User: Which sequence fits this backbone?
């Protein structure tokens, strides 16, 4: 059983910073792309940023220059450094790993439970 546990969310004033972490537990042979998504009530979950196994990153236009995604392959952990936060960044943030549990397994997507980020104006 693969589990992803997020941490680091909370309440911060506009202009402040937060660092989210996502750690995987359970049997995992390899992790391909890791990503952060966010969702507000009534809206679809959207991609914030993702990072491939080799370190190629993609960011939503709304967070470019403010957020930085990184990963530690050995520890199967991913981070999201969020700077210059804005009230519109308020959402539940989810992490997702595209991983292979065993060497012969197909790749599957695994999601964390979500962590609330609230930015006050």
Assistant:
């Amino acid at each position: 059983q693969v589990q992803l546990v997020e941490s680091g969310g909370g309440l911060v004033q506009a202009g402040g910073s937060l660092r989210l972490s996502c750690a995987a537990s359970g049997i995992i042979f390899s992790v391909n792309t890791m990503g952060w998504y966010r969702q507000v009530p009534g809206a679809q979950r959207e991609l914030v940023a993702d990072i491939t196994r080799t370190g190629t990153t993609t960011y939503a236009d709304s967070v470019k220059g403010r957020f930085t995604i990184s990963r530690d392959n050995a520890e199967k952990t991913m981070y999201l450094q969020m700077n210059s936060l804005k009230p519109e960044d308020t959402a539940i943030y989810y992490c997702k790993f595209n991983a292979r549990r065993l060497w012969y397994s197909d790749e599957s997507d695994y999601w964390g439970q979500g962590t609330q980020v609230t930015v006050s104006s």
About this structure: The two ends are 40 Å apart (CA to CA).
